[in-house]
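Second attempt. The first submission of PLP-dependent aminotransferase family protein had a stray character pasted in from the spreadsheet, which I only caught after the job came back as garbage. Lesson logged: always re-copy from the clean sequence file. Corrected sequence (398 aa) follows.
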Amino acid sequence: MAVDWTRRMARRAREAGDPLGGILALANARGVLNFSGGFPDPSLFPTGELAEITRRLLDEDPGVALQYTPSNGIESARHAVADWAVREQGRRPADGELMLTSGGIDAVTLIAKTMLDPGDVVLVEEPTYLGAVSGFATFDPVLRGAALDEDGLDVGALAELLAAAPAAPKLLYTIPDHQNPSGRSLSESRRRELVELCRRWDVLVVEDVAYRQLAFDGTAAPSLWSLGPDVVIQIGTFSKIFFPGVRLGWAVGPAEVVDKLAVAKQNSDQCAGALGQRMLEEYLRGGLLDGHLPKARALYRDRAAAVDAALAEHFAELGTWTSPTGGFFTWLHLPGIDTTALASRAAEHDVAFVPGAGFYAEKADTEHLRLSFSRIEVPEIEQGIANLATAVRESAEV
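This time the job returned cleanly.
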């Protein structure tokens, strides 16, 4: 008889879901009006510049670009990212406060591995990025939801939650800019209140800035890390603004925390890829990212506007939705509709989206869904939203 290997697995593996598998499986799907994954548009990938940078690195720097790296990243690449942080956020990380990671989810996992014991409390926005929920959940914390409203995380409600808690949470995970999945952003006044609140309660804020650079008008409120570097560890990714295949991100925060993250990385993937780090360094130092971002913002702004217009035409009587000012996502509320069941019916109409239930850590909600407009062209948006409305009406009639 074949061995039942499932019985031999660790409990965390047996019980783990696969929240990202279905989304990633649709990455290259054809014949689908695809609003599912938060994938950057391939037309924005800087292939010409990358070809020249790669050729130069292979000719002039193979001993570094093709070698293993320190777990916290190549020193020159870290300095390039630190220099960029000054321009983008007005603060430069001190030595020891910045490391390079293998994307944003790597940073989430390293923080969870470093900071959490079973039973520790982690606060997350409700809803929030489903990859972060699963990343934290692997280390057996208690996940508690913190409410969002139109201005982002409700800091007043959070203060009440902290005051009523038997013990202060270890971490608060938040996406203050063009949040995934809601598209909402945290107001500037709340940012300052949040930093002070978490400083008072000794809660480490995990600030995910995956979409910060993608405000449609190019503006950004002060980052939480710039306001409170003593109580905030910022994590970010270059997947959305450079290219996702490079698998690079960063973590910046208190040096004693970052040092332990680097130690944790030695026992995961050891280091982020050297070639990607050097490519990014050259791209940043050449000012190429600064020239690239306006094109990306314009493309995503046009697609967000097309989604908003199509929803106004087809969903005015069916639901409500957010109108983001940046990022990749619109959050659609359909009262009385189970969006998990809706996904199958929508597929019959050649439409894909992400049901909302997976974005909640504590209080399940099945009446929302996420629409990503980042990789679907404007002519397809109208047809996709119209087809989705047909699927919703059919579901309502059942």
